[in-house]
Amino acid sequence: MARSSPETADKDKTPRHVAIIMDGNGRWAQMRGRPRLVGHHAGAKRVKEIVRSCPDLGVEYLTIFAFSTENWKRTQTEVAGLMKLFKRYIRRETQSLIDENVRVRFIGDRVRLEPSLVDMMDNLELLTAGNAGTHLTIALNYGGRDEVARATRRLAHDVAAGKLDPRHVSDETLPKYLDTCLLPDPDLVIRTSGEARISNFLLWQSAYAEYEFIDTLWPDFTPAEFDKVLRRFGNRERRFGAVPA
């Protein structure tokens, strides 16, 4: 039997959960002679389009990497601009997200974030808690190693308090303490901009995810290209360590 082409893959094999490392905003702007923050604003508009495309493409869960624990190393101007952009996105998109039945969650350590931003994040989660459409998770001040460290501390606290028997700790225990405890593991992780690294993103959860590294810069990543990537996923054979019969 002939193998289907990347453009004609079985739509029934669409990944349930897609995670995206949205890379290339700054380069997109610099290539146009504009400040890096212009690229971040363009990237935010692209997020809106990709989220809206999910129901038609069959994606139930979308997780996007918005700001990493390492991004604090960037210039104060860029970091401050990004924080304002996050507030602006929440302020402008809240009603649309509610109307479009999108459930929003945030993952990451909120301690270092401005209290006003955290309040807006909490409120958006509350306002969309009853939505049952696309599950949008935004990783903000997130790092995979940091997440595992925080989860381990919570687990250790429960052991010390006598709530958890250390003899019963298994590879199914820690996920219950992760930020993503309410989410299925990602089936597909996409990174834009041509970089082929995972940058400390969903380290535990992506153990058996498929990866797609594409050259397109995030502001140029259209729903049409998203569809093509999902169709290529449909041609992959996922073995999870097993040998096919």
Question: What's the SSE blueprint?
Answer:
Layout: E1 17-21, H1 25-30, H2 36-57, E2 61-68, H3 76-99, E3 103-107, H4 115-127, E4 135-142, H5 144-160, E5 188-191, E6 210-213, H6 223-233
Parallel strand pairs: 1-2, 1-5, 2-4, 3-4, 5-6
Helix pairs in contact: 2-3, 2-6, 3-4
Describe the protein in words.
The protein is an alpha/beta fold and 245 residues long. Helices cover 38% and strands 14% of the residues. It is built from 6 helices and 6 strands. The chain has helices at 25-30, 36-57, 76-99, 115-127, 144-160, 223-233, and strands at 17-21, 61-68, 103-107, 135-142, 188-191, 210-213. Strands 3-4-2-1-5-6 form a 6-stranded parallel sheet, sandwiched between helices. It is globular. The model is unreliable at 1-9 (pLDDT under 50).
What is the rounded distance between the termini?
Answer: 17 Å
Structural class: alpha/beta
Give a count of the beta strands, DSSP E runs of length 2 or more.
6
Mean pLDDT across the residues is: 93
Order of helices and strands: EHHEHEHEHEEH
Low-confidence stretches: 1-9
Residues in helix, %:
25-40%
Strand order of the largest sheet: 3-4-2-1-5-6
Principal-axes geometry comes out as globular
List the total number of helices.
6
Q: What percentage of amino acids are in beta strands?
A: 5-15%
Described by strand count, sense and barrel closure, the largest sheet is: 6 strands, parallel
Rg? 19 Å
Notable traits:
38% helix, 6-stranded parallel β-sheet, disordered N terminus, alpha/beta, 245 residues
